[in-house]
Design a protein that fits this description.
This protein is mainly α and 107 residues long. Helices cover 79% and strands 0% of the residues. The two termini are 24 Å apart. The protein is elongated and about 50 Å long.
Length: 107
């Protein structure tokens, strides 16, 4: 558990740094979208649709960062499992259980 907590904290710090680097580029890309496009992306995520364009961009940007962090956390959690644990989880989900650990993690 301590090892996992340390890794998660490291990932959160990395995500914050990544957010700083890509935040401006991502914001510029999102500002290039129309309000209709931004609202469609927010609607798909079940987020509020109201506000000025800048508020929509900030809301969508936060959602994208959270999604990326959640995906990184899931991938890390899978990598910390043993092959037997991975196979048991894949079997429970009805997925193929053969292959190398990296292949199992990807599934």
């Amino acid at each position: 558990r301590r090892k996992l907590n340390g890794v998660v904290e490291s990932m959160e710090a990395s995500a914050k740094e990544s957010k700083k680097k890509t935040g401006k580029a991502q914001e510029a890309q999102l500002l290039g979208q129309t309000i209709v496009q931004l609202r469609a992306s927010l609607r798909a995520r079940g987020l509020p649709l109201g506000g000025a364009k800048k508020a929509l961009v900030k809301r969508l940007q936060a959602a994208l960062v959270n999604e990326a962090l959640a995906e990184d956390t899931r991938a890390l959690s899978a990598e910390l499992l043993t092959v037997d644990e991975l196979k048991a989880e894949l079997k429970r989900r009805g997925l193929k259980v053969g292959g190398r650990k990296a292949e199992l993690v990807q599934r």
